[in-house]
Write a structure and sequence with these properties.
The chain folds into 2 domains: about 180 residues, Thiamin diphosphate (ThDP)-binding fold, Pyr/PP domains (Rossmann fold, 3-Layer(aba) Sandwich); about 130 residues, Rossmann fold (3-Layer(aba) Sandwich), CATH 3.40.50.920. Helix 8 crosses helix 12. The mean pLDDT is about 95. It has a 7-stranded mixed beta sheet, with helices on both faces. With about 325 residues, it is α/β, with parallel strands linked by helices. The longest helix is centred in the first third of the chain and has 15 residues. The relative contact order is 0.12. Helix content is about 35%, strand content about 20%.
Length: about 325
């Protein structure tokens, strides 16, 4: 990287938003406590000092109002970036998102564009109380008219937030909160791939693991463990949950013959459900074993002292690897 810097995922998102705000005065950032405090995770820290309270400002504690405001601003030609403070707080805004934001461009026959980004810290692993550790991405991936993405590393965080802000369509931008402090090198010169392209992070020939967001690190850990046993795992970060870059996954599965899909969310009616169904359809004659899914259990997210039992770990992924290789 000719012009690169090491950043945490949180700081990379901050830097990406700062660059987008510098390049386009129509970009506005708002949400609960995002201005002077910088948000509960400090992702927007410092933006108020640079851009002032007309460009970044606090909202009331009213998620429906946050998204409604974003919709109105988009109608007036702005590019709003709205933060929902925690994943589990998004449900009061659900109607605004799926009934209004996702549909207004189609309803107006293209007259209204909706270049809205909704930032959502999501997932577990931080020892939080109820409604602070959920993974609601499948609700929104199911909704036509929304783009749904999640970065897993600092470089993607920096570029994907800018690409999301530049999109003419609404983007649900899910940020893996337990990885906020994970550091990595960021190429400041150019994005390495489009917003909705998947990426192969580790090459292998025996099993493909497809995942996204906070589970990418876990999948790479499992691949390291498998390598000590002579098993070569290919790890794909799908990066985008809607649309999904199925071609990238298909190419891998045609070589490995085996696929495991993993995420923190429960597996019933999930992103992994869709990927498993599509790969069974497109790769039927290449599969050496059924597509397996590893996710959180289909129960309400547990208390903090139990979450490590709920969240998939490298051992659970390795158990799935053993199962697919046993066929």
């Amino acid at each position: 990287m000719s012009n690169s810097v090491e950043l945490s995922i949180a700081k990379a998102i901050n830097a990406g938003m700062r660059r987008a705000m510098q390049e386009d005065e129509k970009v506005l950032v708002f949400g609960e406590d995002v201005a002077r405090l910088g948000g509960v995770f400090r992702v927007t820290e410092g933006l108020l000092d640079e851009f002032g309270d007309k460009r970044i400002f606090n909202s009331p504690i009213a998620e429906s109002g946050i998204v409604g405001t974003a919709i109105g601003l988009a109608m007036r030609g702005f590019r709003p970036v709205a933060e929902i403070q925690f994943d589990g707080f998004i449900y009061p805004a659900f109607n605004q998102i799926v009934s209004q934001l996702a549909k207004l461009t189609n309803r107006s026959e293209g007259f209204f564009q909706m270049p809205v980004v909704i930032r959502v810290p999501y997932g577990g692993g931080i020892g939080a109380v109820e409604h602070h550790s959920e993974s609601p991405e499948a609700y929104f991936a199911h909704t036509a008219g929304l783009r749904v993405v999640s970065p897993s590393n600092a470089n993607d965080a920096y570029w994907m937030i800018q690409q999301a802000i530049q999109s003419k369509d609404p983007v649900m931008f899910f940020e893996p909160k337990r990885r906020y402090w994970q550091k990595g090198m960021v190429n400041l010169d150019q994005a390495e791939q489009p917003l909705h392209a998947a990426a192969t992070l580790r090459q292998g020939n025996d099993v493909t693991i497809a995942t996204y967001g906070p589970m990418v690190v876990t999948a790479l850990q499992a691949a390291e463990l498998a390598a000590t046993e002579g098993i070569n795992i290919e790890v794909i970060d799908i990066r985008s949950m809607s649309p999904i870059d199925f071609g990238h996954i298909v190419e891998s599965v045609k070589r490995t013959g085996r696929l495991i899909v993993t995420h923190e969310a429960g597996t019933f009616v999930s992103i992994s459900s869709e990927i498993a169904a599509k790969i069974a359809e497109l790769c039927f004659y290449h599969l050496e074993a059924p597509v397996l899914r590893v996710g959180g259990f289909d129960v309400p997210y547990p208390a903090a002292k139990l979450e490590e039992l709920y969240l998939p770990d490298a051992d659970r992924l390795m158990e799935a690897v053993d199962r697919v290789l046993a066929y």
